[in-house]
Amino acid sequence: MEIKDAQYEMRSAFLGGFAGQLVSGVIWLVAAAVSLFFDPIFSMAVLFFGSMFIFPLTQVLIRAIGRPGKTSKDNGLWPLGAQTAFTVPINFLLVGAATLYRENWFFPAAMIVVGAHYLPFITLYGMRMFGVLAGLLVIGGAGLALYGPDVFSLGGWLTGVVLILFAFLGRWTVIKEEEQQRD
C-alpha cells in the first residue's frame, strides 16, 4: 500500500482525528473545571487517568458516527499511531518534574507534551493541520509557563478549546475531501 493511500485510509477511518481530539478536548476541559472546585492534584489526576480512556472512548464515538475506527492490515501506519500515543504517558514524567518545581506549570507542561505528540500525526494522517496544532500547543504551553498569568487551570481551558476546534477542522477537511472524491 502506498503511503498516500495509507494516509487517506487513516483520515477516513478516524475522520481526520475528529473523535480522538474531541474526547481529548473534553477531558482537558473537565480537568480544568475540577481545579476550580477541588485541589489541583485532583485536576492532574483527571487529566492523567482520563487520558487513558481516550482511545476506547474514541473507538466508541467514531463507530457511533459510522466510521470503522481501524484500518486494513496492509496499512503500515497503524503501528505509528500506537507508538505515538505511548509517548504521552512516558513524557508525563517530565510534566511531573515541572509540576514539582511549580504547580501551575502542570497544564503548560502537559500542553508541550501533547503538542509534541501531534507532530507524527502529520505523517500518520497526511494532514499539515497537525503541525499547526502541535505548534500552538507547544508555543502556548511554553508561553503560559514563562509569561502567562499565575492561573492553574488556564492551560487546561485553552487546550480543551483548541483540541475541540481542531477536531471539527479535521472532520470538515475529510468530509470535504471525500465529497470531492465522489464528484
Core attributes:
78% helix; mainly alpha; 183 residues
Q: What would your notes on this structure say?
A:
By secondary structure, this protein is mainly α. Helices cover 78% and strands 0% of the residues. The chain has helices at residues 3-14, 18-37, 40-50, 54-64, 78-85, 87-101, 106-117, 121-125, 129-147, 154-182. The chain is elongated and about 50 Å long. The mean pLDDT is 94.
What overall form do the CA principal axes indicate? elongated
What do the pLDDT scores average to?
94
Radius of gyration: 17 Å
Count every helix, treating DSSP H or I runs of 4 or more residues as helices.
10
What string gives the helices and strands in order? HHHHHHHHHH
Contiguous low-pLDDT stretches (5 residues minimum) are none
- Tell me the total number of β-strands: 0
Helix proportion? over 70%
Task: State the gist of this model.
The chain has 183 residues and is mainly α. Helix content is 78%, strand content 0%.
SSE topology sketch:
Elements: H1 3-14, H2 18-37, H3 40-50, H4 54-64, H5 78-85, H6 87-101, H7 106-117, H8 121-125, H9 129-147, H10 154-182
Helix pairs in contact: 2-3, 2-4, 2-10, 6-7, 7-9, 7-10, 9-10
